[in-house]
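Sharing a chain and its predicted structure for anyone who wants a worked example. Both blocks are below, sequence first, tokens second.
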Amino acid sequence: MSTFKRIALLFAWIMFSMAVQAQTIEQKLTTILSAPDSTASKIGIVHDLLQTAANNRVALRAESEKGLAHLADINAQTAHFASVVSAHNDETAKNNQRMADQNAQADRHNANRCTYEEGHPEQCASYTAEAEAIDADGRYLARVAAQLNQEKATLDAAGQGLQIEIDDFNKYKDDFNARNDANEHSIDVLMRVLAMLQKTTASCQDVLQDPKSSPERIHEACGQGSDGNGTQAPLTRSGTGGGSSNGSPR
């Protein structure tokens, strides 16, 4: 396949990719590939972009480790908070039951009034003592209920704070995943483009090294820069020396 056909197919693939998902990398590559630079120069530019994306991958992996540590901390906080809330609810349920029992005991006590002969209140001493005990128990249980209500307010505030932290992390997670996916997409696109440019350069070098190659064949394989029709300096049969890369960042 000729250089021009390869470049045309490359343009078509990039434009299709841009239509599917508009990414900055496609826009950059469109500008790079449409420039009147040599293929070797374009390979160098694409390789630099690929190296940048590879460096971003390393940085994103390090960021991911920190994110996972933060997530583990959130999960630990959530588990601990759930256990505290569960213990609080258990204690509240027990105190509510004790209050219900105390109210029932008070109702039974009040339903059986004690009467005594005038001037002899000691005849109802046990009844009075029971009433005082029931009232004291009621006051104690009311204090416990007030403490539990205060504790619930504190837990509600803590729960709201924890939920905000979870929501913030989820937003960060979505942003991180978007950035990571975009970078991986850039690497995929750049590697494809780099491979195609290198293949084009290899074909051009094969033709240049063939002493039987005609000017027309050189032009077909290497483009306008090979015969002086463009703005680039003409290629020579010794090669440009720029047809290889430092390898994949993967």
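Comments welcome. Helices lie at 3-20, 24-34, 39-111, 125-208, 215-222.
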